[in-house]
């Protein structure tokens, strides 16, 4: 299978090039062979990040403090013993026991996590009730049902940025013994401070550079970005999103200090996860074996006020940008229509795109952060790896999305209506993200997940509970003045840890099979070689020692058995290879046939009479779709089909609605309408007789032509309605039918728009088929 210029296999529908947000591109596969120059460990699953933490017990028993502070502990009372504890503490953590400078000092006994739920109940009266800050994580963490599937919980990390120079308040964040502790000010009748204790997969303490446990940009990348990169080379999708309050350090962590400065973005001190990821990616590509072809494509868009803007579009101009639409592809999921995708060959090329996108990103001053980014930005990198083995191209694709979310605004602080509008939309996306996380974290079966309630969550669907290895970086400020926001972020992040994703290698079943069989073959060959070696050495020993022929016979038998197995596997391999090849050819033929059908429909529509109003097509299609979906009046549909056929053959237009039938004679300018209740063919010799006897009146003026916007808006409504009917993944037949309906719909829309273009000379809209 040859690759197209941009690395897309030729027989892949071009729509895959436009996919964004999620990547369910059914990419052809590739051999498991590790590029020899690449260290094997790089390809290994980063157990530390996605693995079930070994230690699940909370750090220490809750000793009763001398009524100096309250301890807020888990609220899900029945599940505390199951608390999933996994906090990565970097080297030097031992010193963490000493509170970093300008942090409060807590007596050791005061803020310890309860060892068990029971312990929390023993809390003396002078303490407030215990509530969950670290929820139970799923037991599914990192179980592998399929050899190549990775089932894992979202990896959640927290980063604490330094206090700003002008920031008021004191530092209320502390880390101790793999825990993050927030101390609230004394309040209430007890007049005591409260300690909120949280646990995460990783905690990055970046408050004070002189602190030995200070987490650098490199630390963040190595812990969160590198595993995604390693897995991308293995064919897994990945996603890292930064979440946090405005000014808490999301952009700093993801991109760097000055996101538009080409020097700054590359400096060791400031370079964020995204540029590091891209640089490392090309380093890895450089070390690939000869014979491997790697294609890297990037796209970058932002969601601003629930509208999508391409940050890399050629004519991208901040003031005049056309919002893009999200569509649901039946196989590949939600994607951004017409998003530009750029093939890059070097890191420098990629960095230029990144900088261009950053410059285009909507920014606005807020009361909190002078250059606060008011949009969610999604930078996606698609990696295709291809190797030619025995004349066959084996490839796999992966997509990694690096996301910098906008900070949630407290609208009360702003007087600007535009800002309030932005805030509402940003909050809508983040609010929905919260709802999605809650629903996924709930883990109740059939729980409705409102992915579609916002553009952001719709596009992140696969990254949240789908085919992706996902990590979340929650950033917080240590200042007491930001306490409320900080606690909200930390709770949000806690909940996200319960989300379970199932990532799989993105390759075709055919390529997976070939890869597996090649591995099997390699194993057996090495086994045979080993036996041969042993047999040789045994026979020499036998010759020398004149040992029993029994041992030799046994060894020979084993060798023969192994050889037979090998032969069998080879035969099996060849047979299965041929079978899959045949299936592939069949599928290809079907696709070609389907493509031809579509092309002919488009041709017919293009050459249609320019006077024909578009309305009948729309109405007809909608009615037919309604009929198909409701499966109503099967008998009636037989009659209506006959009538429609007759009308078509006699230059009449016939349309059926839910309760009436309308026949239009455009040539003579007359029309007849009949309610379906009165549709009765008895007493007529044939359909012609029936039609002639209808009550004809002067035809009403043909409906006005639909504008492109109207067509697209109604088509979008249909797509939305249709997507609600999407069958579950395991319903193969229904899924196929669904895909066909969806495809037909796309064909219909293309035809409509093409027709419109030829009629009105309006601007063309290109749709991928
Ligand atoms: N780890 C850090 N070390 C040093 N400075 C930091 C760190 N994190 C953030 N900062 C500084 O804090 C300020 C705010 O950070 P940043 O712009 O990244 O916040 P943000 O969360 O992306 O805000 P917004 O939501 O408004 O985009 C910047 O001046 C940044 O340089």
TrEMBL record:
Residues 1-25, 33-52, 99-114 have a biased composition (Polar residues). Keywords: ATP-binding, Coiled coil, Cytoplasm, Cytoskeleton, Microtubule, Motor protein, Nucleotide-binding. Residues 510-601 form a coiled coil. Its main location: cytoplasm. One of its GO terms (biological process) is microtubule-based movement. Residues 1-126 are annotated as: Disordered. ATP binds at residues 244-251. It is found in: Cytoplasm, Cytoskeleton. GO terms for molecular function: ATP binding; microtubule binding; microtubule motor activity. GO terms for cellular component: microtubule. Residues 153-499 form the Kinesin motor domain. Belongs to the TRAFAC class myosin-kinesin ATPase superfamily. Kinesin family. This is Kinesin-like protein. It comes from Exocentrus adspersus.
């Amino acid at each position: 299978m040859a690759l197209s210029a941009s690395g897309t296999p030729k027989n892949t529908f071009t729509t895959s090039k436009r996919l964004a947000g999620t990547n369910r591109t059914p990419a052809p596969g590739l051999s498991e062979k590790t590029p020899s120059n690449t260290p094997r460990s790089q390809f290994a699953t980063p157990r530390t990040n996605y693995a079930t933490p070994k230690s699940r017990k909370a750090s220490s028993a809750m000793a009763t403090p001398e009524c100096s502070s309250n301890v807020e502990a888990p609220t899900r009372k029945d599940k505390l013993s199951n608390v999933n504890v996994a906090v990565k503490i970097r080297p030097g953590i031992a010193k963490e026991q000493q509170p970093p400078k300008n942090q409060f000092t807590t007596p050791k006994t005061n803020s310890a996590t309860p060892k068990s739920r029971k312990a929390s109940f023993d809390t003396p009266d002078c303490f407030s009730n215990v509530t969950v800050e670290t929820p139970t994580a799923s037991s599914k963490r990192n179980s592998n049902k399929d050899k190549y599937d990775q089932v894992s919980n979202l990896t959640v990390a927290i980063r604490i940025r330094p206090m700003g120079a002008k920031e008021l308040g004191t530092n209320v964040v502390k880390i101790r013994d793999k825990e993050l502790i927030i101390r609230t000010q004394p309040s209430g009748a007890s007049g005591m401070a409260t300690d909120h204790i949280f646990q995460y997969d990783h905690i990055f303490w970046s408050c004070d550079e002189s602190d030995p446990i200070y987490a650098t940009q490199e630390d963040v990348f190595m812990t969160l970005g590198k595993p995604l990169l390693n897995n991308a080379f293995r064919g897994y999708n990945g996603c890292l999103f930064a979440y946090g309050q405005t000014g808490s350090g999301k952009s700093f962590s993801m991109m760097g200090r000055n996101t538009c400065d080409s020097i700054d973005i590359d400096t060791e001190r400031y370079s964020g996860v995204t540029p590091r990821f891209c640089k490392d990616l090309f380093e890895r590509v450089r070390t690939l074996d000869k014979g491997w072809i790697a294609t890297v494509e990037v796209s970058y868009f932002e969601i601003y006020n629930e509208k999508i803007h391409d940050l890399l579009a050629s004519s991208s101009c901040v003031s005049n940008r056309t919002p893009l639409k999200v569509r649901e592809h039946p196989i590949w999921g939600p994607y951004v229509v017409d998003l530009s995708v750029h093939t890059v060959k070097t890191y420098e090329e990629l960095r230029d795109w990144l900088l261009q996108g950053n410059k285009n990103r909507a920014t606005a001053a807020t009361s909190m952060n002078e250059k606060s980014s008011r949009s969610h930005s999604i930078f996606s990198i698609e990696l295709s790896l291809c190797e030619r083995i025995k004349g066959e191209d084996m490839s796999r694709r992966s997509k990694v999305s690096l996301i910098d979310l906008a900070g949630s605004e407290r609208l009360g602080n702003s007087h600007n209506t535009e800002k309030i509008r932005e805030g509402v939309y940003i909050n809508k996306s983040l609010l929905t993200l919260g709802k999605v996380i809650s629903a996924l974290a709930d883990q109740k079966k059939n729980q409705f997940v409102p992915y579609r309630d916002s553009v952001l969550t719709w596009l992140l669907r696969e990254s949240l509970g789908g085919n992706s290895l996902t990590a979340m970086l929650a950033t917080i400020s240590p200042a007491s003045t930001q306490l409320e926001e900080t606690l909200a972020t930390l709770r949000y992040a806690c909940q996200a840890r319960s989300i379970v994703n199932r990532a799989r290698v993105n390759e075709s079943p055919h390529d997976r099979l070939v890869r597996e069989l090649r591995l099997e073959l390699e194993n057996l060959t090495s086994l045979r070689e080993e036996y041969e070696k042993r047999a040789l050495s045994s026979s020499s020993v036998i010759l020398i020692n004149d040992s029993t022929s029994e041992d030799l016979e046994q060894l020979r038998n084993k060798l023969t058995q192994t050889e037979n197995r090998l032969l069998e596997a080879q035969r099996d391999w060849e047979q299965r290879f041929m079978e899959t090849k045949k299936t592939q050819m069949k599928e290809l033929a079907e696709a070609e046939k389907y493509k031809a059908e579509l092309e002919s429909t488009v041709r017919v529509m293009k050459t249609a009479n320019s006077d024909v109003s578009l309305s009948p097509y729309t109405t007809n299609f909608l009615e037919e779709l309604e009929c198909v979906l409701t499966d109503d009046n099967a008998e009636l549909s037989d009659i209506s089909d006959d009538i429609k056929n007759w009308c078509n053959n006699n230059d009449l237009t016939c349309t059926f609605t839910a309760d009436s039938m309308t026949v239009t004679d455009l040539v003579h300018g007359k029309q007849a309408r009949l309610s379906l209740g009165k549709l009765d063919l008895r007493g007529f010799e044939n359909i012609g007789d029936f039609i002639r006897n209808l009550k004809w009146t002067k035809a009403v003026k043909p409906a006005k032509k639909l504008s492109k916007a109207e067509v697209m808006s109604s088509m979008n409504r249909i797509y939305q309605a249709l997507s609600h009917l999407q069958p579950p993944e395991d319903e193969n037949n229904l899924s196929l039918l669904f895909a066909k309906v969806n495809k037909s719909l796309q064909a219909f829309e293309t035809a409509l728009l093409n027709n419109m273009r030829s009629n009105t000379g309006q601007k063309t809209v290109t749709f991928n088929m």
